[in-house]
Amino acid sequence: MKHFEKEGFIGRLHPWFYSTVGTGTTENEAARMAKEMIPFLKEDGVTAIIMTST
């Protein structure tokens, strides 16, 4: 990803990444965590995210 950022294919990468426990997280808990994380990402100007499974 840093390569794509350096080459101008993408804007800039956020300096932090967020991770959760995939198989141990209930749907309700994941929704709660997202509601808590999203305001911080918006405040930092994040306009896109990459979500992967664990």
Automatic annotation (TrEMBL):
Keyword line: Oxidoreductase
Q: Which gene encodes it?
A: grdH_6
Among the Pfam families in the record, one is GRDB
In the record, what terms sit under GO molecular function? betaine reductase activity
Its Enzyme Commission number(s) read 1.21.4.4
Q: Does the record carry Oxidoreductase as a key word?
A: yes
> What's the protein called, per UniProt?
Betaine reductase complex component B subunit beta
